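Wed. Picked up where I left off yesterday with Aldo/keto reductase. The coffee machine is broken again, so keeping this brief.
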Amino acid sequence: MPPIHPMPPIGLGTFRLKGDAVKQVLRDAIRTGYRHIDTAAIYRNEQAIGAVLQETYHNPQTTITRSDFWITSKISPYDMKRPREALLQTLRLLQTEYLNLYLIHWPAVARKSANSPEHKILRLEAWNVLNEAKREGLVRHIGVSNFTPQHIQELIDETEYGIQDAFVQMEIHPWYWRDALEIQTRFRGYGVTIVGYALLAEGRLVGESFPQVLDDISERLGLSKVQVVLAWALSKNWGVLVKSENIDHLQENLGALSAVNVLTSGDLAILDSISSAGEEEKLCWDPRHVK
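Structure written out below (tokens, as returned):
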């Protein structure tokens, strides 16, 4: 798969990991070879991640520096009225002068009804602030998370900056992937990059109810089911976020990069057909009700 941006295509997700737990996972991930780290203000783990990164930079047994990492964070829905201050706080906690990627985490402000007109006003204002921060060098790239195609279209139609080279992070798995394809196709001319999370469909793909076709493909190719699903998403030129507290699983996840080359077009079609258009199941937060 040819590189389409400097972001490592497989990143370490840190949702629900805090304190000593996130520190150990991050240490293991760095030793395993991860250089893409995804966090968010609302995860409340930025300070712990920053501490491990500093520990890594100052480790005399390695030559790893800040420039080796791609670090993503996100503005909290609770901070939509103060996006610049939120960014500066994230930079302080992560102990870094810049982020590789900063995202608007959710298209709505916290504690407001889904149809509040304030959501649109604040997300457009936040987008302008993120663009200004990019010009200052505080962030290298910017984007959105959990936005619908309509929310993204508003950034084109109603801000001076548009969405050139923006990133879109969203839920992606075999039961819910066509919205990602729509965004990728609709905004292709803007150089939009898609990054998926929840690739294992909240555990469904490795539980007892996983599709038999997935087992068939993994057995035939000598891959784990997780590697097959990650390779399926990577084959669509989507980045993926993975999470595990098990170092063996972390290593296995990275193996999905080489698995991209062994999945056939027939395998990809079978994986696409696990769900059908109009009958997809979104398992995480649903932004489609946010105005």
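Quick read: The chain has eleven helices and eight strands.
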